[in-house]
């Protein structure tokens, strides 16, 4: 254990205004939510000598609220709570599935949705569902609140577009207008539980009466520096019937939307092929 | 100063607020039952319950648990009076080298006490955050199945005690 | 028998279940320093200069270098080639160079950033290929640490009789033991004696190594095993190194020193299973009879000799699998690379060579046109079979029985047919397969190893009538102390609960040899049983004949047998007692027995002929699995295994050994992938070195077969390693059945299945390019 507690200072605001004031006064603060990522690095001797802005007392950010348009999940809501929420369970099953595959029970009890987003790992399991549900991220700063489309939060591997002084307050997910004909979530990890994804997919598909695609949303994680919506695939499929030729072409197009790499967990080729297989299986219904 | 309830006792901690919960429990409160296996939140050996829910105490700065209720392996039974789960582990071979045991017990206890199911697959799923390299897990699953059933019997009929099973 | 064969409560169980068992990190030492290790950053080179940042508060630290070592700078083992601290030459990138200690652990770690070493770098030898090409000589003259050859019959003549000659090449990787408690020790000096406490399998190995390093007589060293959180071979010899480091700092600082690795350091720096290549060339008749086996084994030893010769020996002796063949040649060697030394891991060379031997049957089966089960039945060891070393298997040969039991229990034959049909259906989302493997595992040390060890163990009878077991064999989770107590209790005819097992402390127990090689129950248990029978004989002279003895009887006998102490008790009090009850230096009478080789066992180390092991245990595993057609992930439904271990002294513990070994083998086969770059493990974290969780480990159905061995206590043979040998080839065979793909290389990651799937010609029935 290499982390030195004597090298750390902690600020513990009691509410959002206090947190924002402290952060704007000192933009070098490191915000801390559930700590499931930060503490791993800290234990290994990284991220020492910091002033930490511990958000754990911000009760108002730990709530899930129903709104007219959808659901608002406070940034400090844990993966466990999301899974247990009846409305999320019925309306956003892909997010529930993803939360159930984030680490073990212990990690799900600590890790938060907002912390996960701010951490911006390419492998964030909840990101493909949030992407296809077209979530919005509410960002607070002393200047006020802004609504950022989910994808615009990410700038790269472990990088966000959030500025110092800005904090994620909540994530809003709009209800789907119609029930999708097909939906899927699939995480392909290094093992059956407690795994980091090699690829992670979420998809929603609406068909017209004539079986042509009315709308397709498909997103992949671990396949690029940030989670990706397959824009080329989605627009190609629009209005088409899912014939074998169309599905083949869609799978070929997948390559244009992602840029997987070889790393210690998997290979580029495997990631691509498996993602194509998942897409194919989804489109074939 | 940080106040916590640990195993039913009010405790205060006056050291560095970023000290990890596991270190506070072991070094400051002398509760050596909680073990560290990886420092990555991966093995679950350091699992304790915070407000009844299992967490990895190696990933929590103590300031984050101010005002909470913490339970460690020391809150379960003693050698002469093991609780229903410890007894099941002993009878079913759920502990070998023992280093994962305290954390394993705490996750399992949250499940058993919370009225979790006795289905092996459900038990495997909730315990997946606890690694064990000795047992191959099946004896642990068997122990938790037994504990879930025994606890239900006790709740249904509080006067009944679980009879010692005859060893084969 | 009252306790043997029964699931008595394990002795130390209640302590472990209440969080009271004390592992090394749970001990508090007054004025303790924390020691950390400064390691090389290059795989091969020479140290030119070591410098310390001048603006760093070094006065707060105690630092030890090679110059501080009182004796020779070597960690003594088989050969004395590994330094305790590198001072000139660097042979691998985790080589320790100096030791730093501080009262605050994090400050000790922080200091490592303020030390600089200038090297003259030399080209690194990172693979076996590079080692054998001899461009760099790490170990003169030819980089080969050790070679073996086994020769039986006439291999050329054998091939001449063969209708089919089948060749195959197999590769197995590093594997990390991944005990959940990392390596750790504490050292202090007490009245001129160096005391080391810690997590370890072999206190007397540490004793021997430290005796050299510190140049001290036996009695000035005391090594105490603390509760140990798993070993699996990973705490066989590495503790010699870390104990030497901690003791060196303790000696220099005059204070207790704790050295406990964190996970990253433990994974990257300590020993792993030897990677190996194995080549098979096998001659078979059209009826399926083996007529010639030619096998070549090469293992990567890493930078120093350490245990490689013995690992290679066991691998070599198991390379044929449990089959009789009249003409055999096995040649093997282990070579040096600039990677951390590889060492002991459950199975000790056998899982490597048995993987090849067993998977090779699938290849033979395809060539001959008979299924591998039939082929095995035709060639398997029976009583009277002659092994490759010429050993005649006289008794306790359960190979056929475990094979038939596992086949029946798993419904291997009918499910194989069922899955073949399933695989023809292109609409199915998976391929399914059944695979089988059969292995033997020699119990105890290789060849004449037990004779050289001359282990001593026994019992003590105190003047209070208490019976204590005296052995240095360690409890590392496998149940040593409970099993010893059972053997003593039943041999003496007293209840299990009365027997106390003394902690492994070189100050208190004789050297019963290392806790390795599946020898603890059969060999050490046998010595303890013999000693107990000596005690029993003497007791029965003092106690009138009865069907069972009471504690009063024992006390009375003790009064007669042991005179009251004259003055002070001689024995030091035990620090801890796993069996309960303090033993405050009671006068006692000891019964210590030394190992004697059974007369009929003959072994020649030079020719590698004769009785390689006193006896073998046998195991068969059947694996039922499926492979996802979308992701190439393998999901094991079930593993059915039957294992002949002679006698299960404690069935629950024996089952625990079988299940635990099986799970490790599942990891070996499917997940565990040490990624090396420049000699450094790149995935030295539990997040990225993937061991199976609850969800990856299948339900197991286990049958214990008992073919008693006449020299084992109550018929017992070895069980510790056997279960590690058998699942991996069965998994590979099942994947072959499912997909038709030939993947002779572990681990069989989904990436590998995918790669082979899209690159190999069409083979086998399961091959459907459906996705």
List keywords for this structure.
heterotrimer; A: 285 residues; Uridine Diphospho-n-acetylenolpyruvylglucosamine Reductase, domain 2; Uridine Diphospho-n-acetylenolpyruvylglucosamine Reductase, domain 3; Enolase-like, domain 1; 3 domains; 4-stranded antiparallel sheet; globular; B: 168 residues; alpha+beta; Ubiquitin-like (UB roll); DNA polymerase, domain 1; 2 domains; 5 helices
Secondary structure: elements and pairs:
The complex is a heterotrimer of chains A (285), B (168) and C (771).
Chain A (H helix, E strand, L loop, with lengths): L8 E3 L4 H10 L4 E3 L5 H6 L7 E4 L9 E3 L3 E5 L4 H6 L1 H6 L1 H8 L4 H6 L2 H7 L7 H6 L3 E6 L2 E6 L4 E3 L2 E2 L6 E8 L7 E8 L7 E11 L5 E9 L6 E2 L1 H7 L6 H14 L10 H16 L2
Parallel strand pairs in A: 1-3, 2-3
Antiparallel strand pairs in A: 4-5, 5-10, 6-7, 6-10, 8-9, 11-12, 12-13, 13-14
Helix pairs in contact in A: 9-10, 10-11
Chain B lengths: L1 E5 L2 E5 L7 H8 L18 E4 L2 E4 L12 E3 L12 H9 L8 H13 L6 H7 L11 H19 L12
Parallel strand pairs in B: 1-5
Antiparallel strand pairs in B: 1-2, 3-4, 3-5
Chain C lengths: L12 H5 L15 E7 L5 E8 L9 E3 L24 E2 L5 E7 L2 H7 L3 E7 L6 H6 L10 E9 L2 H7 L2 E9 L11 E7 L2 E6 L4 H12 L6 E5 L12 H16 L3 E4 L2 H7 L6 E9 L5 E13 L5 H10 L10 E9 L13 H19 L3 H8 L19 H12 L1 H13 L5 E13 L6 H5 L2 E7 L4 E4 L9 H13 L6 E3 L18 H23 L8 H11 L26 E7 L8 E2 L4 E2 L5 E13 L5 E11 L6 H20 L5 E2 L2 E2 L18 E6 L16 H4 L1 H13 L10 H8 L14
Parallel strand pairs in C: 1-12, 10-11, 14-15, 18-19, 24-27
Antiparallel strand pairs in C: 1-5, 2-4, 2-6, 3-5, 7-15, 8-13, 9-10, 9-12, 13-14, 16-23, 17-18, 17-20, 21-22, 23-24, 25-26
Helix pairs in contact in C: 5-6, 8-9, 9-19, 14-15, 17-19
């Amino acid at each position: 254990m290499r982390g030195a507690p004597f090298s750390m200072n902690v600020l513990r605001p009691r509410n959002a205004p206090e947190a924002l004031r402290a952060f704007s006064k000192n933009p070098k603060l490191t915000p801390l939510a559930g700590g499931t990522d930060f503490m791993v690095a800290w234990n290994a001797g990284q991220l020492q000598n910091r002033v930490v802005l511990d958000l754990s007392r911000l009760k108002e950010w730990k709530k899930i609220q129903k709104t007219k348009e959808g659901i608002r999940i406070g940034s400090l809501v844990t993966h466990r709570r999301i899974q247990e929420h009846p409305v999320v369970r019925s309306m956003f099953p892909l997010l529930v599935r993803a939360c159930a595959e984030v680490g073990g029970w212990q990690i799900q009890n600590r890790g938060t949705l907002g912390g996960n987003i701010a951490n911006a790992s390419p492998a964030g399991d909840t990101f493909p569902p949030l992407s296809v549900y077209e979530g919005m991220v509410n960002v607070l700063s002393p200047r006020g609140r802004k609504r950022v489309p989910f994808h615009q939060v990410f700038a790269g591997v472990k990088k966000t577009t959030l500025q110092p002084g800005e904090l994620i307050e909540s994530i809003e997910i709009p209800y789907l207008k119609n029930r999708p004909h097909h939906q899927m979530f699939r995480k392909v990890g290094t093992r059956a539980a407690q795994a980091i994804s090699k690829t992670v997919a979420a998809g929603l598909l609406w068909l017209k009466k004539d079986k042509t695609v009315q709308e397709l949303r498909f997103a992949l994680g671990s396949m690029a520096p940030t989670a990706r919506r397959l824009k080329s695939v989605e627009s190609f499929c629009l209005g088409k019937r899912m014939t074998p030729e169309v599905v083949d072409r869609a799978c070929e197009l997948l390559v244009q939307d992602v840029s997987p790499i070889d790393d210690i967990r998997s290979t580029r080729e495997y990631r691509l092929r498996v993602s194509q297989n998942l897409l194919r299986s989804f489109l074939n219904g | 100063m940080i106040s916590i309830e640990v195993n039913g006792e009010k405790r205060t901690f006056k050291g560095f607020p970023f000290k990890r919960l596991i270190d506070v429990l072991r070094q400051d409160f002398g509760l050596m039952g909680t073990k560290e296996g990886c420092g990555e939140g991966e093995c679950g050996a350091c699992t304790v319950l915070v407000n009844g829910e299992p967490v990895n105490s190696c990933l929590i700065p103590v300031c984050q648990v101010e005002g909470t209720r913490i339970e460690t392996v020391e809150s379960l039974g003693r050698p002469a009076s093991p609780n229903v789960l410890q007894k099941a582990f002993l009878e079913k071979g759920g502990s070998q080298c023992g280093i994962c045991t305290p954390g394993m017990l705490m996750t399992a206890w949250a499940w058993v006490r919370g009225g979790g199911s006795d289905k092996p697959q459900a038990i495997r799923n909730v315990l997946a955050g606890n690694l064990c390299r000795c047992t191959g897990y099946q004896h642990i699953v068997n122990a938790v199945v037994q504990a879930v059933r025994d606890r239900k019997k006790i709740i249904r009929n509080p006067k009944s005690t679980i009879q010692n099973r005859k060893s084969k | 028998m009252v306790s043997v064969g029964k699931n008595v409560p394990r002795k130390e169980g209640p302590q472990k279940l209440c969080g009271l068992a004390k592992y090394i990190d749970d001990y508090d030492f007054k004025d303790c320093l924390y020691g950390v290790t400064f390691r090389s950053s290059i795989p091969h080179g020479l140290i030119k200069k070591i410098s310390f940042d001048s603006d760093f508060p070094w006065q707060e630290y105690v630092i030890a270098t090679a110059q501080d070592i009182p004796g020779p700078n070597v960690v003594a083992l088989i050969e004395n080639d590994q330094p305790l601290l590198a001072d000139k030459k660097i042979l691998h990138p985790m080589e320790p160079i100096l030791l730093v200690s501080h009262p605050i652990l994090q400050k000790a770690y922080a200091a490592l950033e303020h030390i600089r070493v200038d090297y003259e770098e030399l080209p690194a030898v990172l693979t076996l290929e590079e080692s054998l090409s001899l461009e760099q000589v790490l170990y003169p003259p030819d980089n080969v640490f050790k070679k073996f050859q086994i020769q039986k019959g006439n291999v050329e003549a054998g091939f001449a009789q063969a209708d089919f000659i089948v060749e195959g090449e197999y590769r197995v990787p590093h594997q990390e033991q991944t005990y959940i408690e990392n390596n750790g020790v504490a050292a202090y000096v007490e009245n001129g004696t160096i005391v080391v406490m810690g997590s370890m399998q072999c206190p007397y190995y540490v004793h021997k190594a430290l005796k050299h390093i510190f140049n001290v007589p036996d009695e000035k060293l005391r090594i105490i095993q603390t509760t140990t959180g798993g070993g699996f071979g990973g705490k066989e010899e590495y503790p010699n190194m870390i104990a030497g480091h901690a003791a060196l700092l303790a000696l220099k600082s005059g204070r207790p020193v704790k050295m406990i690795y964190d996970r990253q350091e433990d994974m990257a720096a300590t020993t792993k299973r030897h990677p190996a290549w194995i080549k098979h060339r096998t001659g078979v008749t059209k009826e399926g009879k083996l007529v010639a086996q030619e096998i070549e084994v090469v293992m990567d030893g890493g930078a120093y000799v350490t245990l490689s010769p013995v690992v290679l020996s066991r691998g070599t002796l198991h390379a044929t699998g449990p089959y009789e063949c009249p003409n055999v040649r096995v040649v093997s060697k282990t070579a040096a690379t600039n990677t951390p030394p590889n060492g002991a891991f459950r199975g000790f060379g056998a899982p490597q060579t048995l993987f090849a031997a067993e998977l090779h049957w699938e290849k033979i089966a395809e060539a001959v046109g008979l299924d591998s089960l039939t082929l095995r039945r035709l060639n398997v060891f029976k009583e009277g079979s002659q092994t490759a070393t010429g050993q005649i298997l006289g008794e306790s040969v359960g190979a056929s029985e475990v094979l038939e039991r596992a086949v029946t229990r798993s419904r291997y034959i009918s499910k194989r047919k069922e899955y073949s049909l399933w695989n023809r259906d292109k609409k199915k989302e998976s391929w399914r397969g059944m695979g089988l493997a059969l292995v033997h595992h020699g119990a105890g040390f290789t060849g004449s190893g037990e004779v050289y060890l001359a282990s001593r163990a026994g019992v003590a009878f105190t003047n209070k009538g208490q019976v204590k077991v005296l052995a240095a064999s360690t409890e590392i989770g496998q149940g040593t102390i409970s099993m010893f107590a059972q053997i003593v209790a039943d041999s003496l005819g007293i209840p299990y609960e009365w027997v106390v097992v003394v902690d492994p402390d070189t100050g208190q127990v004789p050297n019963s040899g290392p806790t390795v090689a599946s020898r603890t129950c059969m060999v050490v248990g046998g010595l303890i049983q013999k000693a107990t029978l000596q005690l029993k004989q003497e007791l029965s002279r003092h106690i009138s004949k009865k069907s069972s003895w009471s504690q009063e009887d024992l006390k009375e006998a003790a009064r007669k047998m042991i005179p009251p102490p004259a003055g002070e008790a001689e024995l030091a009090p035990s620090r801890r007692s796993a069996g309960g009850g303090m033993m405050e230096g009671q006068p006692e009478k000891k019964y210590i027995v030394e190992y004697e080789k059974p007369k009929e066992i003959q072994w020649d180390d030079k020719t590698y002929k004769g009785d390689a092991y006193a006896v073998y245990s046998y195991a068969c595993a059947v694996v039922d699995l499926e492979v996802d057609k979308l992701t190439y992930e393998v999901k094991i439904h079930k593993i059915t295994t039957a294992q002949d271990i002679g006698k299960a002294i404690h069935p629950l513990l024996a089952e625990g050994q079988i299940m635990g070994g099986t799970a490790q083998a599942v990891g070996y086969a499917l997940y565990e992938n040490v990624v090396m770059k420049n000699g450094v493990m790149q995935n030295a974290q539990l997040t990225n070195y993937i061991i199976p969780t609850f969800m990856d480990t299948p339900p197991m159905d286990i049958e214990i077969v008992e073919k008693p061995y006449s020299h084992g206590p109550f018929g017992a043979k070895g069980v510790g390693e056997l279960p590690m040998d058998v699942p991996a080839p069965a998994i590979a065979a099942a994947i072959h059945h499912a997909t038709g793909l030939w993947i002779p290389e572990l681990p069989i990651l989904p990436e590998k299945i995918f790669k082979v799937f899209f690159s190999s010609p069409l083979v086998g029935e399961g091959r459907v390019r459906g996705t």
